[in-house]
Amino acid sequence: MKRFRRHGHESHREKLKQELFQFNKASQIEGFPNVGKPSHLHQSFLWRILWLTVYDGEIKKRYGAPGVEFMGLHDENAAVTQVHFLAHQVELVTLLDDNSLHMWTLRAHQGLSELLEIGRFTLTGPPGAPPSVTRVTAVLAHSSGELLLLGTEGGHVFIVEVPGFRELEERNISLDQVASSVPDDYIGRRNLEHVEALQENPLNPNQVVIGYGRGLMVIWDLVKQCALQHIPATQQLESVWWTEDGQYILSSHSDGSYCRWIVGEGGVDEDEKSDIPYGHFPCKAISKIVQLPTENGPPFLLFSGGMPRASYGDRHCITVIHSKAHVALDFTSRIIDFFVIRDGPQHKGHPSALVVLVEEELVVIDLQTDGWPVIQTPYLVPLHSSAITCSHHVSAIPLKLWERITAAGDLQKTHYSEKPWPITGGQNLAADPPQRDLLLTGHEDGTVRFWDASGVCLYPKYKLSTAGVFYTDADPNDNMNSSSEGEWPPFRKVGCFDPYSDDPRLGIQKIHLCKYSGYLTVAGTAGQILVLELNDEAAEQTVEAKIVDLLQGQEGFRWKLGPTRLDMREEPSLFPPGFQPFCLVQCQPPAVVTALTLHSEWKLVAFGTSHGFGLFDYQQKNTVFVKCTLNPSDQLAMEGPLSRVKSIKKSLRQSFRRIRRSRVSLRKHHVNNAAKLQEANARLEAELAEMELAPVQRKIEARSSDDSFTGLVRTLYFANTFLSDSAHNTPSLWAGTNGGCVFAYMLRLPNVEHRADEPVTAQQAKEIQLMHRAPVVGIVVLDGHGVPLPEPLEVAHDLARSPDMQGLHHLLVISEEQFKVFTLPKVSAKMKLKLTALDGSRVRRAGVAWFGSSRSEDYCESGLVVLTNQGDLHVVSLPNVKMQVQYPCIRREDVSGIASCVFTKHGQGFYLISPSEFERFSLSARHVVEPRSLVEAPLQSASSNHRRSQPDGVSSSNRLVGQDSEDAESAARRVMEHALLNDERVLQEIQKSLEAD
């Protein structure tokens, strides 16, 4: 009977786990992809969808309207080098650096679009041919939607039918065919090099221009299979553009020049044959050139590169020329690719926006508004415009605070264009976010950026800069990229990515925002703590500074090699609407702030460094108390950031000393006190038996008090609980250190009517030293019902129930190795859970979260979310500290990703997968944020509904391939057959792998 009850209880618990916990890691990647190597940018003009590939080959994304996102993953571990849309279809072809071609399509499944691979192909070439013969260097997706032209390193052009990837050998263009028709007077006839570019005649799809590396361009007729014209350029070719009227071909070259060639009789326009836009001195290559007509007036000419090597060789520029307007858009990172969005039928009208992908951001320029301003991007925002140094998430922002932050942010965006986002493809079917969430990121340049994290995309709302409070080495008016009247080239800085920091001491290390009061506190690298208040109006004020000595005058310590504190501005400063600083606490020594917490109801802020911690009353602007946590052996904490050599030497020295001490101790016990040693061993075995170690656990290794940074403060926590006796609760402050020590202080707060006059006092009440001295990473107080205490002002705003003050409170201390529960006020150990396992797991992050049932709106549980140094996520139940679920999340080698993780109050989390991207995960079955998008497929195929009208009335895409016209049904059937073949191949591979296992 007992066994039946136990089994039933376990079944209920497993069922409840399914209702509460569900791990979803692939829900969303926020930010700008890490495109450190060449990537590709393309747009489907018919569907208004932006396609972005990342060179590492693993992830590629398609973007449309805000919230419309798709992601695909190649099976091959190869890099994506090119991507091309098929005309009039929701299909595209990718080229990998292993020379394989892959076809993808957007297919509807259960009302949502999915990005699926439906075919793959690799050029084989003739038997015995060298790899260069089939190594693809240029791809042209023909306007028929049924052909791919593949230019290769060997100079050949292969023609492949899609979607079946059938090579049309009889229509291939060999290098010998081209070379035999090259005029004898062309220099380098025998070595044309690789195919650099392929372009189609906008008016006649039967004609393409083939551009070779050495400069020769050949206009080839695909039906007659012969060369129609040779364009004998002699400079190294970079790119080719066929103008929309079909009359000219533009070519750009490695010497910074571009040429205009007449198509047809005459061959070359002598008046406009060549132009070097930026002078007679040697210039960098023009890597891409585009010319687009306007409705009335001169065309737009755009090209990337071409800057003088000696003077501006380090600039990354795209030049835009229209009529008398001439601007060199100056970016702060390398240009990857660009294209132009146009209005009108078939998107052939006036150029409306320039989309530029650079190495660190995506920039969109409004070409229809005077001055060509930037359009605010709703996604692909560079989170790392300055390097991210910390993160802080706030859930369920009240509407009033949300509107005030939004209003302050809107005032900062006046330089942006008012035009809407021009990429509008697809439909966002995701439900409206259930609440308003903010993600705050601290940056190296002293800024704090507020991001709307409610839905699929991280959207910038507001930016706070703390640099104005201090004197810095750089003049805020000094801008090396600012343009002046008559400057040549006419530079204009665009984009927000700025890799340079005026002063690394400005870096933000800790952030805490109270969403109910509007108070914000931020702490930096040089020991500075700023307290700020939200103000809707600009204000000129002086920030009052207080110096706090954490050493309390101890002798024998001196601050060496560490950063000096920042010099504060003494005169009043004008602060714009938004968060405005009114108080500054400066720690001495000016070490990095390692812990920070704010209690806006009590008007107190607590802070900690490697030297100790303190409590500051920001209403009366005075220090309540300071506690030095330094151990006399903590020389590293005093000396600041020493060199790695010195740290290694000290660590080795300490290790040898410990080994020597342990050997001496063992020898002494063995020789002189054998009986005592046996007694100690017996006592140890008894203690181990009481621990009931599980097979996956090991005995925790005790740390020596001589280890460095034992006094570093890891966590701070405010609680209204019982410290002196079980009848009187009192405000308290708890602090945990790197050496496994917990300090508890009782606080006495004056009555509300005397709060501004009488001082806040503190008295140390408790001190706990963990046996194994493991670093304390979290502290939580549980009320009489075993529920974590609510946040400050949460009960006053009727967003949480009042804590139970009748039952017994418990203290949960989270160390790197275990979770231990103590009773209050006696602080006696009640229960514990050891996390440390055979693989050496350590707790790196811990936070309280609420998990709602996916089946019952009224039921929820609180739990402890834990991330280990192995990258695993655990959920621990409260108050009985039992392990609920465990999921692998982050690679154990990704140390920076683990260190950057931040949890939300509803079982989600963010961590950096690159310096510029957050990945969002969810442990809650109820709260999952993921893109839900739909792109409707065309009703008719390109061959039946999108015929290209030709001047002679006989050329057509179907005649080009030698096939009869297909209707929509047959075209759709053809695509489905290829998809089914591909699915069958996948099933066969799965079956083989299962048989092998």
From TrEMBL:
Swiss-Prot/TrEMBL WD repeat ranges: 434-452
GO molecular function, one term: GTPase activator activity
Superkingdom per UniProt: Eukaryota
Ranges of residues in domain Lethal giant larvae homologue: 275-373
Coiled coil: 667-694
InterPro entries: Lethal2_giant (IPR000664), LLGL2 (IPR013577), WD40/YVTN_repeat-like_dom_sf (IPR015943), WD40_repeat_dom_sf (IPR036322), WD40_rpt (IPR001680)
Organism: Tetraodon nigroviridis
Protein name (database record): LLGL scribble cell polarity complex component 2
GO terms under biological process: cortical actin cytoskeleton organization; establishment of spindle orientation; exocytosis; Golgi to plasma membrane transport; regulation of establishment or maintenance of cell polarity; regulation of Notch signaling pathway
PANTHER family linked: LETHAL 2 GIANT LARVAE PROTEIN, LLGL SCRIBBLE CELL POLARITY COMPLEX COMPONENT 2
Ranges where the record places region Disordered: 937-971
Keywords, alphabetical: Coiled coil, Exocytosis, Repeat, WD repeat
Family: Belongs to the WD repeat L(2)GL family.
GO cellular component: cortical actin cytoskeleton; plasma membrane
